[in-house]
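User: Hey, quick favor. My workstation is busy. Could you predict this chain's structure for me?
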Amino acid sequence: TGLWLESDRMLSLAFTPKSLEVQRSVVIEEFKQRYLNQPYGDVWLELRPLVYKEHPYKWATIGKEISHIEDATMEDVKSFFKKHYNPSNAILCIAGNIELEEVKSLTNKWYGDIPGGQKPVRNLPIEPKQLEFREKTIERKVPADAFYYAFRMVTRRNEDYLTVDVLSDALGRDKSSRLYLSLKKDQNLVSNIGAYITGSIDEGLLVISGKLNNGVSFEDLDAALWKELSALTTELVPTNELERLKIKIQTSKEFNDQGLLNRAMNLSMHELLGGAEKINEESEIYQKITPEDIQRIARETLNKTNCSLLKVKADNAE
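Assistant: No problem, here it is.
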């Protein structure tokens, strides 16, 4: 049934003025719900263009504003569909209790007569190297002041991608991370704080975000945060700390791989990146990461000229 549904959509998606308007309304409502009608919802609409000036990552997938959705024409939609939704530009992963020969037979049945099409060339503009600290403050009706420090990082295919992942975990994976222990537990500057990477195929971001406690200024937080970041560039991460991080990463990976959907999606992503078999190499790469690697990547990544800061100030006006 799944193969039939998806092959039908790929071969002959119904384009009618009525269906276009229905979907346009759905997407506009999604834009409002996700970005405009919830606290901190428009953060990424503000942060993306602060970080990216040339690369399309400066836009959210849904668009920068509602007018982008309103102005999409039938010809725009048809052209996009024809360019991207064809077998030559698709990766099909079938996971479950099913035999290979049956998979081949069913796939040929439902996809064999669909024209292959031409794989579109992915020739995106390269984002210039960031050479200055960028900062922007916005006021919103939110419960607390919030901060988003975004550091440019390597591409998904770069050999140091997983090292940046470990670095982000050291900074803010959970309640045993450096930023949580120092800025929340010890200094009581924040109500919450975390660090993560965006997982982008091209140059992505290592983001440190959180919310300030009442009475704490952005300046107080900034001084304390950069002190913690500096420590990672000047001192080696203790071996026992790094080993704990690796164990947590491995445990999380194995837990996620228990789910069939996660395995299928991970296989598809690795196939897109260069080969599904590379999924088997990740654990070994993580294990080889050294304290020196963490320090090297911290020095390359965690510096002010590579950082864009978005501050969300709570507007408490009645």
